[in-house]
Specification:
Length: about 240
């Protein structure tokens, strides 16, 4: 159902020591800090208008969470967090990951605006190595890519970059936690993120929601071998469940 409610107010945040500049906007789920540098991005535009970005994806995550945890990678400014936080089971947690500094800072403010005590936010990219990554944060014209920031594919990327750390999801989630949904919006870095999560996948068999599906042979050999099969599409994402 289309949202009717408009933002209650839209105002600039004071500059932080890191020169973060953002605005606050609201939809029916809560309030959000959106980086000024990426107000032109589709997710930001949706929330600025009082709407919800990828509402069907959020609904799918909630519907399959059960009593378990949700992993949400590519958190951006936290546009999914208030809705997910309000819907998960009382003992469950959301494990949120965002590598870009400005996006992570805004996601942290979004958490504070909404009092989200069941979210664990980490500034890192999910991967399968220990080395730092170079992420392209702006296009060749100097416009921020927002949630579209991605790992550089060449040593000489065309736009401004940011160095970020990567972590294994298997190391980030305690072994006693039960993860029921794993959602990755990591701009063609899904293979690396899944490679660092194979123990968790084998243990928990969470529903997988992937913006980009890795190369067929690798995916079949590493993910399909765990019993995963394609289930459906939601908001341009592919959904896989384990049989």
């Amino acid at each position: 159902m289309p949202l009717q409610r408009q933002p209650r107010f839209l105002q600039p945040l004071p500059a932080t020591p890191s020169a973060l500049s953002a605005v606050i906007a609201y939809n029916r789920f809560g309030g959000y800090a959106i980086p000024n540098q990426s107000l032109h991005r589709p997710a930001a535009q949706a929330v600025l208008a009082g709407g919800v970005w990828e509402e069907a994806t959020i609904a799918c995550m909630i519907a399959h969470a059960g009593d378990g945890d949700i992993v949400h990678a590519g958190t951006y400014f936290g546009d999914f967090l208030p809705a997910l936080s309000a819907a998960i089971a009382p003992a469950a947690k959301i494990w949120a990951f965002e590598p870009i500094a400005a996006n992570h800072a805004c996601a942290a403010i979004t958490m504070r605006l909404n009092g989200l005590a069941n979210v664990e936010l980490t500034q890192a990219a999910l991967g399968c190595g220990a080395e730092m990554l170079t992420m392209v944060t702006h296009d060749a014209r100097g416009r921020a890519m927002g949630g579209g920031s991605h790992v550089a594919q060449s040593p000489d990327p065309s736009g401004p970059t940011e160095r970020v750390r990567q972590i294994f999801l298997d190391d980030a989630i305690p072994a006693q936690r039960n993860v029921t949904v794993l959602q990755l919006d990591v701009e063609n870095f899904e293979k690396q993120a899944l490679s660092g999560a194979l123990a968790l996948l084998a243990r928990c068999k969470p529903l997988l929601i992937l913006e980009t599906v890795p190369q067929t042979d690798w995916f079949a050999g590493h993910i399909g071998s765990l019993g995963y099969a394609f289930k459906s599409e939601v908001s341009r994402n592919s959904v896989f469940s384990a049989t």
